């Protein structure tokens, strides 16, 4: 990781002392931009500050983790509770970082609690200084953890980066450290998930593309943006005429759940691309909307998925409302159907650390575009 390593001393969190003009220049918008909701100002509150715990220990070991489907056949659909427990134990610090930073950013944006802002920056800086999650040794699950973590952190960070309140203007050195780390993670993610055979491109590739897209916007990296868009196009062109993803149908009883799981990263990439003048809605004859409609129909009636897979669908994951956070960008990209509006009203507001926190808050200020 070719970045300078700064000590976490108080000056890292000291307000910008170089003059307001220079601070404003530092915080000015880049060429690549997020959707409009990311410009929301910080809301102020007189509620007492929340305490900040020490950051979880940076993960610097090999990215080798057990899969929760360990021992399953090619469908990768049978849960192994023992290996799942081992996975959760070995990734505990990583998960704490993801969830913690998202909570801290949401509390800061909603209450103006500067201690929470500085807490989030300190946590990410600690991991950046340690070159965390950058090991090139690992397995498929480890590479998956890297891109999930990058997406969680960089998408939360976007709220700070682009807020009209310019909260990062006071912390130029620390934000540079964090952004350099994000870029290093994104560049490794590109290596991890590029040039895969079509039979192996599934939701993992879409989530990798989302993490790279969020980083591209945060760091104004057009090459990363272009890679993410290219991965989206591969995904969109996997959607068949009936709205199915063949590689997700292979998950048999979990096929519907994984079709739904593929939608959040694809929908977010499309929304971010749209904000930068790249309209992906027509790709493969409207594949993204076709996929969304297939999933919504499947949630109402699983028979079509059961017939395609030969298995009764496992609906456990689809009972979690956060899994449908993709409805927020969907209803910005398209004229939202009555069914989609109903789902949003019943399940929202949507909060998920995989997409950077309060997704409903980020997309509700916008109006749906033409379908």
> CATH fold name, please?
Glycosyltransferase
Question: What are the secondary-structure elements, in order, as H or E?
Answer: HHHHHHHHHHHHHHEEH
Number of strands: 2
Mean pLDDT: 89
Number of helices: 15
Overall morphology? globular
Largest sheet: 2 strands, antiparallel
The class by helix and strand makeup works out as mainly alpha
> What is the total number of structural domains?
1
Q: Looking across the biggest beta sheet, what order are the strands in?
A: 1-2
CA radius of gyration is 20 Å
CATH homolog superfamily: Chondroitin AC/alginate lyase
Bin the helical content.
Answer: 40-55%
What would you say this structure looks like, in words?
The protein has 371 residues and is mainly α. Helix content is 55%, strand content 1%. Helix 5 packs parallel to helix 7 and helix 7 packs parallel to helix 10. The N terminus and C terminus are likely disordered.
List keywords for this structure.
disordered C terminus; disordered N terminus; 2 strands; 371 residues; Glycosyltransferase; globular; two-stranded antiparallel ribbon; 1% strand; mainly alpha
């Amino acid at each position: 990781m070719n970045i300078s390593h700064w000590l976490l001393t108080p000056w890292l969190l000291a307000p910008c002392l170089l003059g307001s003009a220079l601070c404003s220049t530092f915080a000015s918008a880049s060429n690549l931009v997020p959707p409009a909701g990311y410009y929301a100002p910080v809301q102020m509150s007189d509620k007492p500050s929340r305490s900040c715990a020490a950051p979880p220990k940076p993960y610097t070991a090999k990215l080798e983790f057990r899969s929760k489907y360990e021992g399953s056949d090619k469908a990768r659909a049978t849960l192994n509770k023992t290996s799942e427990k081992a996975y959760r134990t070995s990734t505990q610090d990583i998960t704490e970082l993801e969830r913690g930073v998202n909570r801290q950013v949401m509390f800061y944006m909603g209450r103006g609690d500067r201690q929470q802002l500085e807490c989030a920056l300190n946590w990410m800086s600690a991991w950046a200084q340690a070159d965390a999650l950058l090991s090139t040794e690992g397995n498929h699950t480890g590479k998956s953890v890297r891109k999930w973590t990058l997406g969680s952190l960089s998408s939360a960070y976007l709220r700070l980066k682009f807020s009209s309140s310019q909260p990062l203007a006071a912390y130029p050195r620390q934000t540079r450290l964090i952004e350099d780390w994000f870029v290093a993670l994104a560049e490794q993610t590109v290596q991890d998930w590029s040039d895969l055979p079509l039979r192996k491109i599934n939701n993992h590739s879409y989530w990798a593309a989302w993490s790279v897209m969020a980083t591209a916007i945060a760091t104004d990296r057009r090459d990363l943006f272009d890679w993410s868009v290219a991965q989206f196009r591969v995904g969109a062109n996997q959607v068949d005429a009936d709205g199915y993803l063949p590689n997700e149908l292979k998950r048999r009883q979990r096929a519907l759940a994984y079709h739904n799981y593929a939608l959040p990263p694809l929908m977010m990439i499309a929304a971010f691309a749209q904000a930068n003048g790249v309209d992906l809605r027509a790709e493969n004859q409207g594949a993204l909307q076709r996929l969304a409609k297939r999933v919504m129909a499947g949630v109402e009636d699983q028979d079509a998925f059961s017939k395609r897979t030969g298995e009764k669908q496992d609906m456990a994951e689809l009972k979690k409302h956060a899994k449908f956070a993709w409805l927020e960008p969907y209803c910005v990209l398209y004229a939202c159907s009555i069914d989609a509006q109903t789902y949003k009203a019943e399940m929202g507001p949507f909060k998920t650390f995989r997409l950077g926190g309060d997704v409903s808050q980020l997309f509700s200020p916008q109006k749906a575009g033409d379908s």
